[in-house]
């Protein structure tokens, strides 16, 4: 079986797009009944052939959404219906299960490439002729702040997790039809105005729509062509972007060091060298050149054939000199997806790698390997996953693989070819940094070392190197498990710690106050409910807290 990389899926979709372009005219002529029949065909097929996809959304909620769209179709414009169909398929929240961007943006896109850096959304690349806006920060799309605009388009994207949305969601922000269908802009238009910031100046710029065929469809960074330019200084090329045009993978020894850097951007075989042969050549070089550090970069790797992964794992496990803490670094990111998620799972399980970068774009266990379902009237293709890849236990089904050390990139760093992720690997020293914080804190708890637990939890919670860990959620789940097992006092300790670390979290405060009520610590519970009300009296938890507080005061 193979799981398929998103950008290579897109290459296949390009072929179907050529065929489907001829259907654009036909789609405009479809009757409401024909669109409704397509919707029902999709619904019936999912129920009959793909019922296992009802994991993150229930069959009932899916059917309610389908029925609502069925009623709305007669009042929708032709361009709005493919977007709505994409929303239906995206409800499953698996990246391989989708109606693609290329089916919902057939009329065209804006002449820009956007990228979400750690300091905002920027115009990373443009079609030549739009140099004025190259490198500008996006403040608004239409009259919506960019954060709000992203929230509006999110339901159209098959969002597996937040990294997936960062990697693949931004393209939907460049499709006028999606922007209109999702309410970001008020009217269907061939132009979209964005408010931008560049060089200390804020200004509005009206972008025209260009043909979809004129937008590059490869990596999420712009690779310069005769038509497209990037904001990055192209007089140099950082290692993770080298040879992207001509090699799926390569390695080089860093000058003056005993470190080898590898960039692998696919789990498919390159036309010039199979992965198995590449791995043999790589490790022969390592063995014969006294190499003591390996930095392996898959931040741009969207997958391929996961049966190729075993050859890398075997080579690593045979080399304890490299496969040990502080000598093997594995860079992951928002484009790490599909078969490369399988590779990341195996790296975590079988090696001593330190993971750096951003969370992966895939769930640890996931549905991949999709089949094409062509809707009979519109000829739109829905891609529905059928293969369940379970590398970890079901109860360990994390949304993503998190890096041991969180590192991301600002726009200025990208523009000037700095690579803070690689630098973090090269500069790593074993100075006591806790690579697996949840395991560390769990060990302290089990040992009864509560004072150290509280100290370390506070330090870890405030350390940006752990920025992707949701400690509030993880601690709260642990507390609920303890309470469910009859250990209320231990659960109370955890909830108290969570509330102390997250004083502005109504959920953390409510969990603590609710348990305090159960344990008859009523005065403390009253204080907790008062804090929730002070945060936002009109929120759902604020209203519940008011009722609970009123009941306690009556008693």
Shape: globular
Which percent range describes the beta-strand content?
A: 15-25%
H/I helix tally: 21
**Which structural category do the helix and sheet elements fall into?**
alpha/beta
Largest sheet: 6 strands, mixed
**What is the alpha-carbon Rg in Å?**
25 Å
Uncertain residue ranges: 1-27
Short description:
By secondary structure, this protein is an alpha/beta fold. It has helices at residues 6-21, 24-29, 32-49, 59-72, 80-90, 101-104, 146-153, 162-169, 176-181, 275-288, 309-317, 339-350, 411-415, 420-426, 437-446, 450-461, 471-484, 488-501, 506-518, 522-535, 540-554, and strands at residues 98-99, 112-117, 120-127, 137-141, 144-145, 191-198, 201-208, 228-230, 249-253, 259-264, 293-297, 328-332, 354-357, 366-374, 381-389, 405-406.
Any overview of this molecule?
The protein is of the alpha/beta class and 555 residues long. The chain contains 21 helices and 16 strands. It has a six-stranded mixed beta sheet with strand order 9-10-11-12-13-16, with helices on both faces. It has a four-stranded antiparallel beta sheet with strand order 5-4-6-7. The chain has a three-stranded antiparallel beta sheet with strand order 1-15-14. α10 links the parallel β10 and β11. α3 runs antiparallel to α4 and α11 packs parallel to α12. The protein is globular, with a radius of gyration of 25 Å.
């Amino acid at each position: 079986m193979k799981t398929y990389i998103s950008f290579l899926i897109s290459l296949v979709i390009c072929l179907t797009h050529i065929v489907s372009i001829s259907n654009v005219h036909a789609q405009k002529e479809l009757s409401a009944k024909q669109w409704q029949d397509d919707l029902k065909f999709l619904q019936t097929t999912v129920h009959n052939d793909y019922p296992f996809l009802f994991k993150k959304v229930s069959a009932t909620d899916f059917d309610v959404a389908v029925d609502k769209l069925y009623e709305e179709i007669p009042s929708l414009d032709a361009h709005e219906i493919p977007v709505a169909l994409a929303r239906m398929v995206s409800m499953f929240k698996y990246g391989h299960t989708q109606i693609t961007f290329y089916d919902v943006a057939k009329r065209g896109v804006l002449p820009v490439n956007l990228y979400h850096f750690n300091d905002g959304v920027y115009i990373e690349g443009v079609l030549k002729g739009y140099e004025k806006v190259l490198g500008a920060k996006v403040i608004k799309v239409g009259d919506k702040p960019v954060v709000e605009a992203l929230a509006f388009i999110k339901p159209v994207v098959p969002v597996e997790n937040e990294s997936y949305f960062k990697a693949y969601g931004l393209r939907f922000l460049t499709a006028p039809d999606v922007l209109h269908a999702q309410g970001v802009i008020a009217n269907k238009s061939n132009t979209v105005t964005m408010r931008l910031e560049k060089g200390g100046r804020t200004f509005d710029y009206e972008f025209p729509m260009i043909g979809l065929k004129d937008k590059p469809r490869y990596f999420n960074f712009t690779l310069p062509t005769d038509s497209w330019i990037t904001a990055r200084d192209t007089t140099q090329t950082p290692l993770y972007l080298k040879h992207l045009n001509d090699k799926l993978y390569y390695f080089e020894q860093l000058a003056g060091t005993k470190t080898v850097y590898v960039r692998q951007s696919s789990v498919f075989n390159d036309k010039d060298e199979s992965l198995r042969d590449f791995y043999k050549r790589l490790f022969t070089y390592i063995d014969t050149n006294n190499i003591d550090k390996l930095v392996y970069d898959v931040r741009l790797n969207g997958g391929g054939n996961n049966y190729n992964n075993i050859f890398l794992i075997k080579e690593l496990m045979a080399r304890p000199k490299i496969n040990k803490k502080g000598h093997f670094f594995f860079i992951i990111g928002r484009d790490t997806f599909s078969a490369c998620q399988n590779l990341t799972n195996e790296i975590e399980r079988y090696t001593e790698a330190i993971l750096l970068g951003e969370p992966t774009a895939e769930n640890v266990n996931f549905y991949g390997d999709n089949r094409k379902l062509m809707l009979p009237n519109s000829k739109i293709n829905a891609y529905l996953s059928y293969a369940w890849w379970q590398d970890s236990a079901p109860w360990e089904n994390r949304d993503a693989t998190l890096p041991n050390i969180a590192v991301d990139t600002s726009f200025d760093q990208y523009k000037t070819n700095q690579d803070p992720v690689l630098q973090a690997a090269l500069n790593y020293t074993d100075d006591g940094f806790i690579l697996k914080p949840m395991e560390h804190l769990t060990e302290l708890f089990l040992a009864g070392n509560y004072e150290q637990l509280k100290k370390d939890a506070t330090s870890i919670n405030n350390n940006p190197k752990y920025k992707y860990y949701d400690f509030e959620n993880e601690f709260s789940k642990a507390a609920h498990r303890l309470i469910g097992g009859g250990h209320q006092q231990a659960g109370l300790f955890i909830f108290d710690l969570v509330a102390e670390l997250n004083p502005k979290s109504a959920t953390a405060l409510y969990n603590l106050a609710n348990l305090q009520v159960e344990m008859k610590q009523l005065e403390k519970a009253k204080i907790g409910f008062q804090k929730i009300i002070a945060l936002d009296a009109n929120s759902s938890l604020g209203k519940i807290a008011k009722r609970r507080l009123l009941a306690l005061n009556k008693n």
